[in-house]
Amino acid sequence: MAYPYIASDLDGTIVKNEDFKILDETIADILNYQEKSGSKFFIVTGRLFETSKLYINQLHVTLPIIGANGAVIIDPITQKVLYQSIIEKDICEKIFDFALANNLDLIYYSAKALIGLETSERINYYKEAYKDLERNLQPNCEIYPDFEQFKMSAMNEIHKPFKFLFSFPTTGSESLVEKTTKFLNDLKLNCPITHMNERIFVDAMNNNVNKATGLEKWAEIMNVELDEIHPIGDNNNDYEMVAQFKNGCVVANGVEKTKQVASKILEDIYSNGVGKYLQTLSHPQNDD
Q: Which residues form the signal peptide (predicted)?
């Protein structure tokens, strides 16, 4: 039996939300799978390539990675952009204006950078979290001193957004989150909500973009059958890929909505759920 391709989410699935680290045993099991399978473990994440570089390096990922919840596919070796779903400029302008009018914390993603303000919560969080890494593993953050320059960086196509991200504190943000998602739905955008580290994140991407469509595009680029891919996730933004793929898996700490559509529930992240699943796939009986 041939080894399947493993498309793993990062945060909450193999990367612990509280410290952004992967368990040593999970790393060991993934590296073992990489060696036995011919490097068939890759990443499908809501993160940008820039904030995934540490894990790409750590896990010896050589296959193209899917970032920004399916909005971009990048070859980690050449860093060539193989696919991206750019948001139209008139939609971008409405998002910027909405954020400014409501005093919301907003950043956006392009293929090679996170773009935001000096006050942007996520940019400051990532800078602090990765400050001790080698420079080439730190995310590239483009920071603007005022909102007008921030907006014009997209309107003048200095950077081309394929994903916007609103960051809210968990407490007291319910009405603003609801207002934001209604606004984004009215623009006919896809806006998955993720809860992590006392924050609520609302993404904004083109409506035909999610991790499942990203995996379909990846399979087309790589000439791989969809049933050869085992997606693994934990959160709301993993729902489509888990539901639509025959071998969709969810770790036990995942959200109930996504667990309900999974073909298999793995042990939780703290019990090395993904690593143990890879062990079953790496059993000698699976060798060609």
A: none
pLDDT digits (tens, 9 = 90+) for 53-107: 999 999 999 999 999 999 999 999 999 999 999 999 999 999 999 999 999 999 9
As a whole number of angstroms, the distance between CA 207 and CA 50 comes to 23
Structure tokens at 49: 């390539």
Instruction: Please provide residue 188's backbone torsions phi and psi, each rounded to the nearest 5 degrees.
Output: 60, 40
Q: Could you tell me the pTM of the whole model?
A: 0.86
- Domains in the chain, number: 2
Label the pairing between strands 41-43 and 5-8. Answer: parallel
CATH code for the domain of 107: 3.30.1240.10
Residues of the chain with pLDDT under 50: 286-288
Last residue of a domain, one of 168, 190, 206: 206
215 and 118 part of one domain: no
Is residue 9 within 8 A of residue 44, CB to CB? The reply is yes
How far apart are alpha carbons 273 and 278 in whole angstroms? 9
Domain range for 96: 89-206
